[in-house]
Amino acid sequence: MRGNSVILEVKDISKHFGGLTAVNRLSFEVQEGTVFGIIGPNGSGKTTSLNCINGLFRPDEGRIFFRGREIQGLPPHQVAKIGIGRTFQVPKIFKRISVMENLLAPVLSSPRTDQELKAKAREHLHSVGMLEMEDRLGEELSGGQQKLLELVRILMFDPQILLLDEPFAGVHPTLKTLFYKKIHELRKQGKTFILVSHDLTSVYALCQQIIVLDQGEKIAQGRPEEIKRNERVIEAYLGR
Amino acid sequence: MRDRKESTPSRMAAVWVRCGPAALVLCAALVPLAAPSISSYIFYLMFWITMASAFNIIFGLTGYLPFGYVAFYGVGAYVTAVMWSRLGVPIPLSILSGGVLGVALSLLFAPTLRIRGIYFAIVNFSCAMALRILVANLPEAWTGGSLGISLSAIYNPNASFYTMMALMVLTIWTVGRVSGSRLGIALRCIREDPEAAQVLGVDVVRSRLKAWILAALFPSLAGGVEAWYTAIIDPDSSFNLLITTKTIVYAMFGGLGTVMGPVIGAVSLYALDDLIWGKFPMLNLLILGLLIVLLVLFLPRGIVGTVTRRHASLRAVIR
Amino acid sequence: MAELLVQAVISGVLLGILYGLIGMGMNIIYGVMRVVNFAHGEFMMLAAYLSFWASHAHGINPIQSLLLTVPLFFGVGFVLYYLLVPRLLQAEDPEMASFLTFVGISLVLTTLILLVWGADPRSVPFPFKRVSVSWGGFFFPLGRLISAGFCAAVILLLILFLYRTYLGRAIRAIIQNREAVAILGIDPHRLSALSMGIGLLLVGLAGSLVVLSFPAITPVMGASYTLVAFVVIVLGGLGNPLGALVGGLVFGLAENLGAVFFPAALAPVIAFLILIIMIFWRPQGILGRP
């Protein structure tokens, strides 16, 4: 059913800032319907890689394919339109508008009626236990709720791949379980995830494939149990 | 649609919000007939409500502060006066052409929307001041130089009063429509975080331009109607920076980004302004200055924004 | 014609140094706090009026009055910082909030000047016997020469302070990277208050000296000097204190050479045009890197 086709292929991408190399000749392939983990110490290029994929940065070298189509250099709103959603380490919630309006933001150009879109938004809110909050302002949510809102907000445009940047950082354990549930559920529907996280327990529990970055380079790749035993990974995390 | 029970205060507010404005407009409509002595006061109140509400579309909804906002008002006034006095165009058409030129001016300024924050405010301010110098230095046969243009031959306080009323209602209605629409959501998203809006697929450039054009249209028309009402214009009063400042203060006091805010702000502060202006014109400027400082420091969301922040139940009613 | 041009260049350079000083004051305040001092010109006019008062009531010349305005404005800056800035920085949009606050302050200052000194233009008597010195067939207006000399000395001192002392380096560090100060172990509030004091000190100095170049002052002149400050720092680059000197010289020259070719009524348009063109063409300033 899944695991056979490559949905995203990153080929030899590099990104430099001034004299610093944030990402160096990075390559990986993501299978459709899997959860793909990217881990590594601070400043190892994890977030920069996500920024290159969703168009916030244009990689200096290399190419990125989404279902065989080259996407590097496309502006972010077009990358969103073709089916790649993205959350941020510090959730980018619109603070002074309501939760409902936050959810409508990604589908403003949709041909469907407001009523249909609102019904869909309520379904998503219900699925994360936030139905009561549609009239709250973004700023009135807790940090964890903001993260959940950001997740269901990108679900509004039904992306094929979800790029999640540190979804568990600072999130209460109860909400974390909810996140797990949600990711499992979406995976069953055929969604693909790229998960960047410091939380190794979560990454090991959720991901099928993991790559490890250190100073912008890929130093290891494999299934969770392979990564756990990899000496270079242990060294990268503990050695400095 | 909402099966949740609404609390008593919010139901009362709902009644007020629906019937209050209609009753007020009706009362104002009777003023030129029943109480001509205050009709000038009501005219200018409606003028400031129009200015503050239109300003709200660009500053309140998108966070762009056009510090030279007075330019649209000035252009509307001048185009109306020149069209009528030099080309003999009937006054309603002159006012409409003022609106058209105001929109044209906003399109000319549109590239400045690429710059953000303080740069936009300063560049817009510079454009307005440059325009003022330009208008003052155009041939006297056209713009009347520093003396301006007299429209006394078509002085008609009642007709211009009702035109201003119609313009005010149209402006508030438009703001209400925009605010509740998808465009309104897009604009607020851009105000909060343009990058996040883009990542979610919001068309930042087009939404912003629409708001800018709307925000330019109404003050341009208001400038024309006011020129008709006073029957005289000159460069100093048509491009007076205080018009921008007062517009900002009224909109802020009521609550930026809300539909009712600028209306409430103009109603409450114009009374104060009128009272002090008549007796101590200097004190008026001092108070205006202090008011801006205090508003920014202590009431940045204005009356409506602060009330709805504390009482979430009112949000569905007061927008 | 050539003579006229040389005279315009002399005038442009002498005024440009003063403009540079005006711009530096605003630039330090913006660079350190991201606070846009829209009342810059009004503060300057306040200093000019204080010098007028000192000269008129006590026979103190504008240069001697620096002893009054400089410490006074430094203190005002310090107080203003603690009164306003920490609160402004917590606003949803600190840059806009500070801009609007200082718009309000500019109105307050203009009114105060109007209330105390009235709306009629006032003139500060010229304190020197000779109006100009001639050298090589060209005239150097003495007032502008002396004010430019003072400004140049102050700019030099400021550069020494910013590049040679610990506090000065800390100010430059905070301009470049706001987080850096935490690492240096300096209280950012103290440093910001100091910068605000220096910014206003410079504007007080400029206000007292400007009457040597333009003796007639009115309460509503402030806005045009605020504009000068904006043009200067947009030319020199926001947050770059040295750039202000370059910006001041460029603007002084443009203004005075422009006056040779264009009618006087259009002169202010030159400033607006420079501002608009620069922001589109090189928003980082002449010296700045993109």
Quick structural overview:
The complex is a heterotrimer of chains A (240), B (319) and C (290). With 240 residues, chain A is of the alpha/beta class. Chain A has a domain of 167 residues: Rossmann fold.
Task: Walk me through what this model shows.
- Chain A is an alpha/beta fold and 240 residues long.
- Chain A has a domain at 6-91 and 158-238: P-loop containing nucleotide triphosphate hydrolases (Rossmann fold).
- Chain A is built from 9 helices and 10 strands.
- In chain A, the strands form 2 sheets. Chain A has a 6-stranded mixed β-sheet, sandwiched between helices. In chain A, strands 2-1-4-5 form a 4-stranded antiparallel β-sheet, with helices on one face.
- The mean pLDDT of chain A is 88.
- In chain B, strands 1-2 form a two-stranded antiparallel sheet.
- The radius of gyration of chain B is 20 Å and the shape is globular.
- In chain C, a hairpin with a 2-residue loop joins β2 (132-135) and β3 (138-141).
- The model of chain C has no long low-confidence stretch (mean pLDDT 84).
- Chain C has one domain: ABC transporter involved in vitamin B12 uptake, BtuC.
- Chain C is mainly α.
- Chains in contact: A-B, B-C.
- Chain B binds chain C through residues 63, 65, 67, 111, 115, 117-119, 121-123, 126-127, 129-130, 133-134, 136-137, 241, 245, 248, 252, 282-283, 285-286, 288-293, 295-297, 300, and chain C through 36, 84, 87-88, 91-93, 95-97, 99-101, 103-112, 114-115, 223, 227, 230, 263, 265-266, 268-269, 271-273, 275-276, 279-280, 283.
Amino- and carboxy-terminal Cα gap of chain C: 39 Å
> SSE order of chain B, as H and E?
HHHHHHEHHHHEHHHHH
Sequence stretches where pLDDT stays below 50 over 5 or more residues of chain B: 1-5
Largest sheet of chain B: 2 strands, antiparallel
Strand order of the largest sheet of chain C: 1-4
Pick out its properties.
heterotrimer; A: 240 residues; alpha/beta; Rossmann fold; C: 290 residues; mainly alpha; ABC transporter involved in vitamin B12 uptake, BtuC; two-stranded antiparallel ribbon; 74% helix; 4% strand; globular
